[in-house]
């Protein structure tokens, strides 16, 4: 550059006013303003929240969407309460967020969802909704040391896969099947029982447990039939069952099939009551079975009735006020699953997935559903079951069984 142009360049630079540079220069001339700005920036940095992502997987569309949405709503109630308390974990303010994904109650889709959560390194997962989906994805979470807490899957196999990452928020089918078989034999005095299942991991599992317990008590399985979780016409199955003259019919499956089955039982003049696990113990059953429901269904929940849960009445009131609908079934268990994750994070003073897994095996707290503490397998240490029936479309608890 020619020396004669240096003066021009200097003049140009002196006349140029960059907004940021100009702002900085002015503030540097005012020490009090500079100090105030520095303090503001420091405070903002100190209060910056670390986002902690929790995955949720369930059926958010399709025939079982009422279960999936029910659980998601329970989780969101817990998240709102936790975040409102302005939690600090490991010395850092944190905010919990939910990544809710639809697995369609399909093991193949569930695998895709689980891989997404693993790739995104979520801190924990609540789900999956069904036994078949929960079992199918358990290894994916175990390999990444991510806790999988199901609020609804009851197959005993789920917590017997040899992983330390599987946790269940309610009683399993071993507990439910035994409670139901005793009630059918001792209270209903049904000694001749037919068993039908939908061939899913849940349906077949609880039906097998129930049948084994019936036979162990000296009673008789007079028919063993099968359907699918997509069927709605049970004419052939019920015709064969009726010919066996059972005093009770057990169905291993969900309310989506259980409601229509109960209607068709009455159509074929089958007077025996329908028996089932938690999949039939839902608010939706009154819509699905209609008038055939009253006094004709006996089902077992994997916990106390909502009215008898320690935090049940308050939870039910808040749930209905927030969503304008009653609890279907699994929302309080999903709520407690989120609270278990939070308590574990506080105990570990960490939101890292492996630390949460480790702490979940040590966490103890009083949840909405009862005392929450897990055994070595990830099952509740003190499970409970409630056997209920329906009158005028309303679910009525009959008896409670606890460990």
Can you describe this structure?
The chain has 403 residues and is of the alpha/beta class. It has 3 domains: 3-46, no CATH class; 50-170 and 307-372, Response regulator (Rossmann fold, 3-Layer(aba) Sandwich), CATH 3.40.50; 174-301 and 387-402, Rossmann fold (3-Layer(aba) Sandwich). It is built from 14 helices and 15 strands. It has helices spanning 6-15, 19-28, 31-46, 65-84, 107-120, 131-143, 173-186, 201-216, 235-243, 255-267, 285-289, 312-323, 331-348, 353-360; strands at residues 50-58, 88-89, 92-102, 124-126, 148-150, 166-168, 192-197, 220-226, 248-252, 274-276, 297-301, 365-366, 371-372, 384-391, 394-402. The strands form 3 sheets. Strands 8-7-9-10-11-14-15 form a 7-stranded mixed β-sheet, with helices on both faces. It has a 6-stranded mixed β-sheet with strand order 2-3-1-4-5-6, sandwiched between helices. Helix 4 (65-84) packs parallel to helix 13. The longest helix has 20 residues, at 65-84.
What name is given to the CATH topology of the largest domain?
A: Rossmann fold
Give the CATH architecture of the largest domain: 3-Layer(aba) Sandwich
| CATH superfamily grouping of the largest domain | Response regulator
Low-pLDDT runs: 1-29, 31-46
Question: Span between N and C termini?
Answer: 91 Å
Biggest pleated sheet: 7 strands, mixed
Give the C-alpha Rg: 28 Å
Protein name: Leucine-, isoleucine-, valine-, threonine-, and alanine-binding protein
Pfam families: Peripla_BP_6
InterPro entries: Leu-bd (IPR028081), Leu_Ile_Val-bd (IPR000709), Peripla_BP_I (IPR028082)
Domain Leucine-binding protein: 52-376
């Amino acid at each position: 550059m020619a020396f004669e142009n240096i003066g021009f360049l200097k003049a140009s630079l002196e006349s140029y006013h960059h907004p940021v540079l100009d702002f900085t220069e002015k503030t540097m001339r005012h020490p009090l303003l500079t100090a105030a700005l520095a303090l503001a920036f420091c405070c903002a940095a100190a209060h910056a929240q670390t986002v902690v992502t929790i995955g949720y997987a369930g059926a958010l569309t399709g025939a079982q969407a009422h279960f999936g949405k029910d659980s998601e709503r329970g989780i969101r109630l817990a998240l709102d309460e936790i975040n409102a308390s302005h939690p600090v974990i490991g010395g850092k303010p944190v905010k919990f967020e939910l990544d809710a994904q639809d697995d369609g109650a399909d093991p193949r889709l569930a695998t895709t969802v689980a891989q997404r959560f693993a790739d995104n390194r979520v801190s924990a997962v609540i789900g999956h909704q069904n036994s078949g989906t929960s079992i199918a994805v358990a290894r994916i979470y175990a390999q990444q040391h991510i806790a999988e807490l199901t609020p609804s899957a009851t197959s005993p196999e789920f917590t017997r896969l040899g992983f330390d990452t599987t946790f269940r928020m309610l009683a399993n089918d071993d507990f439910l099947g035994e409670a139901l078989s005793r009630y059918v034999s001792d209270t209903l005095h049904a000694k001749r029982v037919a068993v039908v299942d939908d061939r899913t991991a849940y349906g077949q599992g609880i039906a097998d447990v129930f049948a084994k317990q019936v036979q162990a008590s000296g009673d008789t399985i007079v028919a063993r039939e099968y359907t699918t979780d997509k069927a709605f016409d049970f004419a052939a199955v019920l015709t064969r069952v009726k010919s066996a003259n059972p005093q009770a019919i057990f169905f291993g499956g969900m309310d989506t099939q259980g409601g229509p089955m109960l209607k068709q039982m009455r159509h074929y003049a089958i007077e025996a009551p329908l028996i089932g696990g938690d999949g039939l113990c839902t608010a939706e059953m009154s819509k699905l079975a209609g008038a055939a429901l009253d006094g004709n269904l006996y089902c077992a929940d994997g916990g106390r009735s909502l009215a008898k849960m320690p935090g049940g009445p308050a939870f039910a009131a808040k749930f209905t006020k927030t969503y304008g609908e009653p609890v279907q079934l699994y929302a309080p268990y999903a709520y407690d699953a989120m609270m278990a994750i939070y308590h574990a994070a506080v105990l570990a003073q960490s939101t890292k997935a492996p630390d949460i897994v480790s702490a979940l095996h040590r966490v103890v707290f009083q949840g909405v559903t009862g005392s929450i503490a897990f055994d070595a397998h990830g099952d509740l240490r003190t499970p409970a079951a409630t056997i209920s029936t329906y009158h005028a479309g309303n679910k009525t608890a009959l008896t409670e069984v606890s460990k």
